[in-house]
């Protein structure tokens, strides 16, 4: 049995590319998959593909750069499936320009999704997962995966500031507790991770 079997997994930016490949793979591993993206038709097509293969999937639009939309996307998953086990903050954008040519609009475009979007989606997911009961077998009650990339270590373009920030954030010993304020629930047993990837082509999911 796969670790994903029976899980409720939400993958942002999964209408195409790496996110779509993950959505199809998660479904093959037995997860119920929620496809979230800005591209409604493509997101629904991924969900339909999963369903046609016998899997369980839902799809809807959210802009993860808008915190209230991230909150709404988590709420919708819980309304449909009762809980959220895995959140993959895959949605991201790239705009490559030489340093001297980066405009404030470029910076804001990238950060809207890659930094602000990732952070507040992570926060919304963590809020939900911390309310969920720990699993009886000691498995974490939720996992949040923040894909970063190898350039988080060797920054090459301005959009690499985001994976670098994610990586720095997760290098803290207890990132959730450091963000917690007095009186918040103990966030133990919730796993946060960053994954480094590089140079991937995901035109087709295998
Ligand atoms: N392809 C690579 O080689 C590679 C390497 C390292 C890291 N990455 C990172 O992995 C992620 C996915 O890469 P990809 O190549 O599949 O990208 P992609 O552009 O093919 O797919 C990204 C998806 O995210 C969606 N998206 C964009 N903004 C969004 C928003 N505000 N809210 C919700 N969805 C949004 C897009 O509509 C798109 O479907 C990106 O963050 C990218 O920077 C990619």
Regarding CATH, which class?
A: Alpha Beta
- Helix/strand-derived category reads alpha/beta
Alpha-carbon distance between the termini? 20 Å
Fraction of residues in H or I helices: 40-55%
As laid out across the biggest beta sheet, the strand order is: 3-2-1-4-5-6
Strand content range: 15-25%
Low-confidence segments, ≥5 residues, pLDDT <50?
175-188, 197-206
- The number of helical elements comes to 6
Number of domains: 1
Largest sheet: 6 strands, parallel
Mean pLDDT, as a whole number? 80
CATH architecture: 3-Layer(aba) Sandwich
One letter per element, helices H and strands E, the order comes to EHEHEHEHEHHE
Number of E strands: 6
CATH topology: Rossmann fold
Characterize the overall form.
Answer: globular
How would you name the CATH homologous superfamily? NAD(P)-binding Rossmann-like Domain
Radius of gyration: 17 Å
Query: Which ligands accompany this protein?
Result: nicotinamide-adenine-dinucleotide
- Give me the oligomer status: single chain
